[in-house]
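Practice set, problem 2.
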Amino acid sequence: MRVISGSARGRILEPVPGKDTRPTTDKVKESVFNILQFRLYDAAMLDLFAGTGQMGIEALSRGAARAVFVDRAPKAISVIRKNIAAARVEDRAEVLQMTYQQALQKLQGQKFDILFLDPPYGGELLNSALNAVESFDILSADGIIICESSVEDTVMCPDTFSVYRTYQYGTIRLTALCRKEENE
């Protein structure tokens, strides 16, 4: 079991049973929220590959207006729903059990200030998701995308985004992306 911090401090989050879901480490999670600290208030967050839902729940506990949680695994969806209820944020949370492509298509026309992408490491899933995010145009004008990946993974930045910053924590890399400025 994991404890979430912020204003939800002391609440226990359920883990997803089995070894298919890799939770974000506490050190990386704190780094993400240090990056996002001035962007959270009243923000709309999309947590793709949500796992336990810990990142979206933490965002809600720190002032985000709403969060959409996406995962295709039934076990993860069950855990996300339990964790949202335990954190008492049901009124600001939406849970979608579907692939990231289906979710992005469903959410097309909406804008999100924060996107958190933490797919399974390795392979091309992260880059495929970034290209889909670009094509469905769901990032707000001043929004940010935070990607969690292995340091061995190559993050391919789509044309309309630029890498704002990268951070490394042992074998984990965080890549922050934002929209390109018009003069870039």
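Problem 2, part (b): a different protein.
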Amino acid sequence: MLGGALGLAGKPARATAPRLRSLVLDHTHTHERIDLVYASGEHYVPQALGSLNHFLRDHYSGDVGQIDPQLFDLLHDVRQVLGTGVPLTYHIISGYRSPVTNARLRSTRSGGVAKQSLHMAGKAIDVRLPGVPLAELRDAALSLKAGGVGYYPHDQFVHIDTGRVRSW
């Protein structure tokens, strides 16, 4: 009995490799592409977060905002819910929006731009996934119950945010 216990104790413990989280994004307005690992285990990669902040800048003004890292986790988790191990490329319609840009869009568009938009706080993103029906993308985001989900089939995007759980 003791020999069996010693045999187990003598084996080196296996370290579990940290779970890497990555994103591949194409911006529909700037025509830029980014493909990176933004987190390892429970730790975010600061350099990757800085790159994502710049990538998701206000494409009208060039202003760079601070994007909530949980938003990246939501995108990653939506991709997981969709059940594919293949890295899917999100098309980004809108990331960060400066208050000036948000006010201008509110005054020139007939609805769809909130006065206190979470885009201004870096907590919202508008996306689509080529090859994935928009309703499936919406349903995957809704299934997470992790924030707001807006469905815009006419404009071909889904809004995802890290605010309170709600949908429209």
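Answer key, part (b): The first strand starts at residue 20 and ends at 27. Helices lie at 2-9, 46-55, 69-81, 99-108, 134-144.
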